[in-house]
């Protein structure tokens, strides 16, 4: 579905009409990670269905609420649930909330997700700081007329994830004494999990984690010049030579169980940026 050019400004105006907080940070909470929002001192809360042009969350483990408030004293806007291409939303719709949060004032983005771990050292519950991404969705939210007011027609993607944010997140994991990996996130269309042959291919392509989100959001964020921290939680181990079955519920449960690690890393980065 094509969105009107004014869609993200309309949604931002509806939010501003009820809340005058200017968020510096935008945070997208992935599958099972919604409870991180319990740590936000909330000023205003919006159901996605009440915001103009906003899609509705249909994915398991995604509450479908936008919160404005403070985390670690910093003004934040938090998506408790996101939109995925496999739900039937267009790339523009999956990325639209990023533009809304940018229009509200956010200049840094934290994206979190649940992902399959491809690196043999990974265990369920381990976080991975995303260093780069591979777009295997073969779709792009910037297709169509470019909004020059937002960003360039041909955005640079040489460093989509901010290395300084990543280092701070890894340092928080060291302080917390829990394992933390760094690697490349492969964005898949879903909703099927991968076959053994596909996991094998992803390893050969240089991916360390496979998921079904994040890539369109990060493209939209980089287009708008936002600095990005990305963290995956490994929810299933993808060993092509000994692959067990994976279910959506198992993924959500594994992500929820690891949410305290995510919280430690995300808050450390927000704190350090002052
Ligand atoms: O929103 P995220 O990327 O955390 O959701 C992942 C991808 C699918 O929605 C689901 C598959 O298990 O988890
Ligand atoms: N594509 C994909 N998405 C996931 N989300 C959680 N685990 C996985 C996985 O193994 N593959």
UniProtKB/TrEMBL annotation:
Presence of keyword Cytoplasm: no
Coiled-coil regions listed: none
GO molecular function per UniProt: purine-nucleoside phosphorylase activity
Entry-linked Gene3D superfamilies: Nucleoside phosphorylase domain
UniProt EC number: 2.4.2.1
Amino acids binding phosphate: 31, 62, 82-84, 114, 213
Tree of life domain: Bacteria
Binding site for a purine D-ribonucleoside: 194, 236
Bilayer-crossing regions: none
InterPro entries per the UniProt record, alphabetical: Nucleoside_phosphorylase_d (IPR000845), Nucleoside_phosphorylase_sf (IPR035994), Pur_Nuc_Pase_Ino/Guo-sp (IPR011270), Purine_phosphorylase (IPR011268)
Residue ranges of every copy of the Nucleoside phosphorylase domain listed in the record: 26-271
Cellular component GO terms held in the UniProt record: cytoplasm
Keywords: Glycosyltransferase, Transferase
EC class name: transferase
A GO BP annotation: nucleoside metabolic process
Xref: Pfam families: PNP_UDP_1
The protein's annotated pathway: Purine metabolism; purine nucleoside salvage
Family in the record: Belongs to the PNP/MTAP phosphorylase family.
Record function comment: The purine nucleoside phosphorylases catalyze the phosphorolytic breakdown of the N-glycosidic bond in the beta-(deoxy)ribonucleoside molecules, with the formation of the corresponding free purine bases and pentose-1-phosphate.
PANTHER family: METHYLTHIOADENOSINE/PURINE NUCLEOSIDE PHOSPHORYLASE, PURINE NUCLEOSIDE PHOSPHORYLASE-RELATED
Stated name of the protein: Purine nucleoside phosphorylase
Organism the protein comes from: Posidoniimonas polymericola
